[in-house]
Amino acid sequence: MNILFRFLLIVVVAASCAKPEKTDFYMPAEWEPHDAVWLGWEDEYESYHPVVFNVIHALMPHVQVKIAVDSDSLMRVAKHILSEHSIDTTRLQFYVMPGERYWIRDHGAAFLVNSKGELGVADFAWNGYGYPQWLQEKFDNNVDSVNKYFKPVRTKMTGQVDSLMAIAENATALKTWVAHEGGAIEVNGKGTLILCEATVFKRNPGKSKEELEPEFKRVLGVNNIIWMKQGLADDPWHFMRRIADNYVGGGTGGHTDEFVRFANANTILLAWVDEEEKALNTINKMNHERMSENLEILEAARDQDGKSFNIVKVPLPDLVAKKVVARETVDDWKTSLDMRVRSFKASEAPHAGDTVLRVPASSYMNYLVTNGLVLVPTYTNTGSSPEKEERVRKIFATHFPGREIVFIDAMALNWSGGGIHCSTQQQPQRKK
């Protein structure tokens, strides 16, 4: 992409931010009709590709698929690889958006609609999942170390992707200073939003609910906010973390799309560990405690009309814990599950040569709903109970009637702290 085009792109982004805001925009529920579903593409993480192929194959009969890439050259590579896997790329729409990375829901556009048939975008600030704050914690506020690893230019570019998506769709951008990710937004389309304290406050240190809530309400068009306390234990904040005992992992620190989702305007699905499973391992025990606390909050909560919710417990898959080795160097760290000692903060780090139990951010809750379809992760390939997965299938069939339920193995994404929902972003149908 030449320098002139990049300059024009920046000018257009700045101009779009100056457009007058319209206050009747709101985020529809995910089960409402979609005009498209977006995905991102990063060629360097080849382990993700089989998941991407399966997701695209499943989506294409139901909805327009749009793919954002960082550069023209990467777009050509993506088209070639997708074509080799029997995907008709002429039916896909590609967009070159500098700064684009794989997890498009988190840094990309959170689409809105209004009663006039217009499209909007909630343009949140982006700080790489609170990366500067994580570096400060990891290096005990050592400024030199923080500056060494934090790349503000790359972060800024990725933070402009939602604005570029707004431009591509001629949507109005509602900008906010609040730093937040799309995987941490859960709405019922009627005025209620679910947030998680663990993620919101890590991204916005020093800010209070009283400061944050008006901005969430303004840019998402909601009037009622429910605050969860913590997400899943196997979704810790950033990489790598010692979760407890010898269990290690990494993730977002509590995205709602890992543990709490609306199935309809008045029904909430909550990740759950049954009583008889909580003593099987430390992770199960932690998740049982966390979700029990969240259940109490949800039972006391009310929707935008003052009504209580129907809460459905969705079992978590059986824990996957892979023995891996901590090393000083890992040559193929993008594909290997072994970990570099320096990826940890000092107080949590294993010694080089230690064997630890790495756990993925695995959850049936990281699903995507679109036109006539629900994409749900499967875990029977990694040893989870088929009987449990059948219970999950019945829950989804009950609460998303008339939609095809398709299970996809997304474990490659789980090892990186994400899943199917994190990899996709729905573009709602404009109101007629």
UniProtKB/TrEMBL annotation:
Record organism: Chryseolinea lacunae
Superkingdom classification of source: Bacteria
Signal peptide: none
Statement: the UniProt record of this protein carries the keyword Hydrolase: yes
UniProt cross-references to SUPFAM superfamilies, sorted A to Z: Pentein (SSF55909)
Protein name in UniProt: Agmatine deiminase family protein
One Pfam family, short name: PAD_porph
Keyword tags: Hydrolase
Tagged with keyword tRNA processing: no
